Amino acid sequence: MELNTSSSSRHSSNSKAKAKAMAKIVEEEEEEEAEDFFSSSDCGCFLCAIKQPDARLRRASLADFFRELPYCDDDGGSNGQSCAAAVAAVWRAAMAAPDDPELPSLGAIRCMSLLLARALADAAWRRRGDNARVPYYAAHAIGSYTIRSAAHAELAVAAGSVRPLVALLGGAMTWVEQRAAARALGHLASYDATFPAVARHAAEAVPLAARAASTCVADVYATFVALPPSRRPRYQRELMACGGGLGVDAEDRKAEEWASQLQCWSLYFLSCLASRDVSSHAMICQDAVFLRDLSRMWGGLANGDSPAGVGLLRLLCRSPVGRAAVAACRDALASLCDLARSSDDWQYMAVDCLLLLLDDRDTWHAVADATAACLVDLVEIRQLGPRRRLGDAIASALLVDDDHVRGRELGAEAEKAIGSLRELKLERKEREEAMLRDELIKREILAKDKKRQGNDSFLNGDVGKAIDLYTEALELCPLSRRRERLVLHSNLAQCRLARHDADAAVGDATRALALARPANAHARSLWRRAQAYDMKGMARESLLDCLAFAGTWLDRRRQNKHTTRAARGACPKLPYCVARMISKQMSVTGLFAGVAMSCDKVGGDDCMPRCSEDGDGDDEDDEDDRDDDESEGEFAGNSAAGLKICTSGREPPIVTEDAWRRLARMI
């Protein structure tokens, strides 16, 4: 019995050993078969390698592929796949999975860097086959892999990618490659580990990025948009279409989007340098033309999430060198004032810039002289974006008592503005705090009576008397009656419009919007300021106010509890004059509009049609402005108040599908 047991045990042990040996043999045979299959397949290209299920084989094949690709003798490798197709496949992988470390660790980023260097050094190779696309795909792949990964950025720097990217940024090829290079350099400059490698090229890269941001719009228009389709570079058209086909209009829109991105990414690269190295501020500020135009550079509707020029300006205003340069540029200060009195999402950044300039004793005088008349319109803003008590900060910056600052005289306009601010925020506030409650109530009643008289005068056509009565009402109305003062300023803005006094209308409408809660949330004032900006030819500011108004208008129509059941089911419509204003301003605020029509002026029939005198406000009290302590009581007799829906008998405004698509994204 024991003998049988022992024999059985030995037999079992031998069987297990044989099974293990057989399994090992089978595994080796399978690996050999897989290697034979891969090597005998139609091509050892990137697409075949990336699909290899065995991780060890895949990694080995990809490493060999990335090692050999930069040195292929012609436009294709030995396997017949073109270099452009291979690099495009790497670019798609980078776009799909930028954080995946596999391809970068196997040499993908190094391969892209070497291809960039070869394309720059060998023009004949670049012109062969489809190799013209290689620099774009390679630079874009580097930018995609480094968008969120510091480790990938270190690989790019180690591979020597900074030098060829700077060359592309300088226009060594075309604006298409320049765009991809600006994106990649911005990412490399955003990490602590790789910033020093980029900063070593700052003396060369800063003027190149500034020039790219300043000239890219004109360059793209001249070298692509202005050309007939048959003369546009074929590879650029195919890159925009991602291999498909676009019509001429779609190509133009894509070119506008890419030009805007080139500008924004160039500014982002400069912002990364400015935020980490104060010494770069002097280099950035050397170009006076660039500094003048900086605050007017914006992401447009296509890149609304980019602070663009004002973001860089705010960084420059954090250093003495930057503040001195900005304060000396009157055009830059004027542009900051325009942005501060707009509905732009980056309005608070413009105010930040001006406050930083006013906080510097050496720049206070020049800045206060140029901006005080505009800034006083904003002193009653409570909160703007992430900034709280912003109006108080503006008032404190302007009402400084430093003898060093106040030693020099200001211009008459600035002195008047600061004097009115001192009266409002200090003297009048003290007087009203000392008044009895009954006296304040009496003044409030008198203010309302003046407002009613002003309404009557306006409706009777006596605009001058209406202005006087509204002004008297503002002087009587207690500061605590914020809502009443908002309405008075808004009514004054309407009177200024009737007199075609656009500057005064902008000021009064801005004061009304500063009193709104939240700021800029008063629909009638937005529309009035939009009309005033249109009179001044400031299309961007007018458009932004129109879009803000449209958002309020459409939201009210969707949420209005008093509409009929049928109306609730219908699609809400914008007033005719607002739709036409949006259509008009979108046609002249595109990036290429200024280049294409640099000599044309807005005029004649471009003046927007007025809604009737009794219909220039909303068609009901501003209950949905989130700021209603009481009925606004716009001009008396407004039984049918409202922005009329196309009552002029004209054809509806032509608003392109793309315009409405962008409008929908905004609101």
UniProtKB/TrEMBL annotation:
Residue ranges of every copy of the ARM repeat N-terminal plant domain listed in the record: 40-285
Bias (Acidic residues): 614-633
Region span, Disordered: 1-20, 610-649
Subcellular localization: Cytoplasm, Myofibril, Sarcomere, A band; Cytoplasm, Myofibril, Sarcomere, Z line
Location (main, coarse): cytoplasm
InterPro entries tied to this protein: ARM-like (IPR011989), ARM-type_fold (IPR016024), ARM_7 (IPR058868), Armadillo (IPR000225), TPR-like_helical_dom_sf (IPR011990)
SUPFAM superfamilies (alphabetical): ARM repeat, TPR-like
Name assigned to this protein: Protein unc-45 homolog B
